[in-house]
Amino acid sequence: MKQVSLGHDGFPVSRLGFGGWALGGQWGAQDDEASLAALQHAIEHGITFIDTAPGYGDGRSEQVIGQFLKQLPASIREKIHVATKTPPSEGPWPPSPYCRWQDRYGAAYIRANVEERLRNLGVECLDLLQLHSWTSAWNDDPQPLLVLQKLRQEGKINRIGLCTPEQDQNCVIQLMRDGLVDVVQVVFNIFEQEPAAQLLPVAEETGTGVIVRVSLDEGALTGKYSADHQFPEDDFRSGYFAGDRMQRTTKRVDAIGDDLKEFGLDEHYSLAATAIQFAMSPTAVQTVIVGMRNVEQVALNVATEALPALPEEFLRRLQLHQWRRGVWYSGK
User: Which ranges carry the NADP-dependent oxidoreductase domain (predicted)?
Assistant: First the structure.
């Protein structure tokens, strides 16, 4: 699998990354042995980048990944890079414009949280530590990022990142231009294309690394769910697709499938492959993390990454599927 540098002078990452959310058990029941087998299969097939967070099962995802890393031979372990996150302390998610960074990302809190990340993963230095959310209200006094710079100087962190809040992804643009983040993790998919307007060009301009998440719109862009599908209560998506959201989403997914047929691409590209390839298509993007919870999912995603890039004409057609659905969690 192709390896690229994660931003200017960044460490190498595979174009397809392993998303570790499901390993924490919030996408339905998850067996740790299945998680370990999925991780092993991913590494054997060239995936060298893993993304996780403490919120994924109250540290369970990190711990499983840490357990996996310990059993790897040193020659393989040194090629694997893991990104994790520090969430803001208790309060609104994402942080509101009225939140003070002192209350959500105070220095003592960040330091204690980073130590917990190190323990869970069983490492002495984090490859990439990302603040899990942000508000543009802090851009003119971004002290939490300065705390991370100190932690990097102390050898606790290698690279500093920030995950964009879904409703205000452009809040990272000023931070990139100010040189305060090495990497940004953004939502970019066939429905959510706003980062293409300014965020991705600025990332290229500044040499900031870009990780794409939610490339499959939480599974909807795989095309495997019917309009009346309902997720179990212990699955995060039971809330994400509440009400009539799945019904409205499947109509738009079907329209993408129609375009695949019109272009004669449906024999080679599944809907999932199309979505992943679309997310990889901007030159500013280094890696696309996709959630994987078993060996079968890993195999499908690895095969997708190996496909030829989508034709430019078809990528332009996919741009027409941008969906300005507003604040999705409010059901608009």
Answer: 15-319
